[in-house]
């Protein structure tokens, strides 16, 4: 008996095992899908969310079979199987998988293929030494490890990019927030010191009290935004997901009293029954509606703001998205101020409208929160007046639109 120490040497059993894997690749793919679905909080249709991706996943199994049959050729970095492994890593990043889940996913794949080979080898008649059989097992797990490495490396590359982006957003937000709160606290302290002066004319007290009240209200609004922002996490596993009408209804409820006091009728138009991040939609909708109420046209016989939404199978980048719009017949925004609407600290009506409280951070927080989830924000101004503020969040998959039939 010849010692089988070179794992790259040909093995008489390897071609038969490789052919068996290729013949069973569809069955193995679906077994892998079932095992993954049993371990993660995703519908099976979301694990491989398009038929195209599901059809190409067997390439991973073909790559394992090829390495098992021809180990000396290795798995080239530019091979189709590596490209598909990287594509899978990008998908898992977008779905919010963590590193452990990805590693476990490939552990499951290796176990499924190995179990198949155990059953297959019992029916084969090719001559094979014991050490040759062990070498085939080593090749199998080596192939899985190479594919796993490509997938995880691409996942980690995406994750590093996300972390760098979030850190930059956080630094910018902290700078703006610190500056804003410092100014507000300074105004409150200054007004308080003046109110404590002896001999302060009585006609000055209301103005100073108003400064204290407005800046305290501004700080509260800023802290409320921070609380809402803390509920957001781009990791889809950490998001509380609800149907869009439910999230909009909660936003409308929060502003019911403010709308009634301002004489603004809040309408809710057609909304698709798709799942969304509750925190993101509530934060953005509350902010948009709050601005519509604050800047309602006092001369309009009927003042209104309407929330409506729709789904699009292809946004600007070709991916499906859910769009929410808040329209109103209010004062609109001066044309020269529109380009800066979502800038931190910018208030479009600071000179033309009095008595409106605000920090100028609301729209920038909406932008940061929505973009952190892969979405976008914008505003439009119809010729008849008023404004339309909108945001879009990515849908998980094109078929997500079918959730309209789902019970609430």
SSE topology:
Elements: H1 14-23, H2 25-37, H3 44-47, H4 51-56, H5 58-69, H6 80-95, H7 99-121, H8 130-195, H9 205-230, E1 241-243, H10 244-254, H11 256-262, E2 264-268, E3 275-277, H12 278-294, E4 303-312, E5 321-328, H13 362-372, E6 376-380, E7 387-394
Parallel strand pairs: 2-4
Antiparallel strand pairs: 1-3, 4-5, 5-7, 6-7
Q: What would your notes on this structure say?
A:
With 408 residues, the protein is an alpha+beta fold. It has 2 domains: 14-161, Orthogonal Bundle (Globin-like); 236-405, 2-Layer Sandwich (Heat Shock Protein 90), CATH 3.30.565.10. The protein is built from 13 helices and 7 strands. It has helices at 14-23, 25-37, 44-47, 51-56, 58-69, 80-95, 99-121, 130-195, 205-230, 244-254, 256-262, 278-294, 362-372; strands at residues 241-243, 264-268, 275-277, 303-312, 321-328, 376-380, 387-394. The protein starts with 13 loop residues before the first helix and ends in a 14-residue tail after the last strand. InterPro entries: BphY/WalK/GraS-like (IPR050351), HATPase_C_sf (IPR036890), HATPase_dom (IPR003594), His_kinase_dom (IPR005467), HisK_dim/P_dom (IPR003661), HisK_dim/P_sf (IPR036097), RsbRD_N_dom (IPR025751), Sig_transdc_His_kin-like_C (IPR004358). Residues 176-397 form the Histidine kinase domain. It catalyses: ATP + protein L-histidine = ADP + protein N-phospho-L-histidine.
């Amino acid at each position: 008996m010849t010692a089988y120490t070179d794992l790259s040497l040909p093995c008489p059993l390897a071609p038969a095992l490789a052919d068996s894997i290729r013949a069973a690749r569809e069955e193995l793919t679906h077994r892998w899908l079932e095992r993954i679905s049993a371990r993660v909080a995703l519908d099976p249709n979301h694990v491989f969310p398009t038929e195209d991706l599901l059809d190409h996943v067997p390439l991973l199994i073909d790559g394992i079979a090829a390495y098992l049959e021809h180990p000396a050729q290795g798995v080239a970095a530019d091979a189709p199987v590596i490209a598909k492994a990287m594509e899978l890593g990008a998908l898992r990043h977008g779905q919010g998988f963590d590193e452990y889940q990805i590693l476990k996913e490939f552990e499951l794949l290796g176990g499924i293929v190995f179990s198949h080979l155990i059953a297959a080898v019992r029916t084969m008649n090719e001559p094979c030494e014991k050490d040759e059989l062990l070498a085939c097992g080593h090749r199998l797990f080596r192939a899985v490890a190479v594919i796993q490495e490509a997938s995880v490396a691409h996942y980690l590359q995406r994750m590093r990019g996300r972390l760098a982006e979030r850190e930059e957003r956080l630094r910018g937000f902290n700078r703006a927030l610190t500056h804003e709160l410092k100014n507000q606290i300074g105004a409150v302290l200054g007004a308080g010191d003046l109110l404590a002066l002896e001999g302060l004319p009585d006609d000055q007290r209301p103005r100073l009290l108003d400064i204290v009240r407005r800046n305290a209200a501004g700080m509260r609004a800023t802290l409320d935004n921070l609380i809402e922002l803390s509920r957001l996490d781009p990791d889809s596993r950490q998001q509380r997901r609800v149907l869009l009408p439910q999230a909009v209804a909660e936003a409308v409820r929060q502003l019911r009293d403010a709308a009634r006091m301002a004489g603004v009728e809040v309408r809710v138009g057609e909304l698709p029954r798709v799942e969304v991040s509750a925190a993101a939609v509530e934060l953005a909708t509350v902010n948009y509606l709050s601005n519509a109420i604050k800047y309602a046209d006092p001369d309009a016989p009927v003042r209104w703001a309407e929330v409506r939404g729709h789904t699009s199978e292809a946004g600007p980048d070709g991916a499906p998205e859910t769009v929410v719009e808040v329209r109103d017949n209010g004062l609109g925004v001066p044309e020269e101020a529109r380009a800066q609407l979502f800038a931190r600290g910018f208030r479009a009506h600071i000179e033309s409208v009095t008595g409106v409280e605000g920090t100028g951070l609301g729209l920038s927080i909406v932008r940061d929160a929505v973009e952190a989830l892969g979405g976008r924000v914008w505003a439009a101004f119809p010729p008849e007046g008023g404004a339309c503020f909108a945001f879009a969040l990515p849908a998980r998959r094109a078929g997500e639109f079918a959730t309209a039939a789902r019970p609430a």
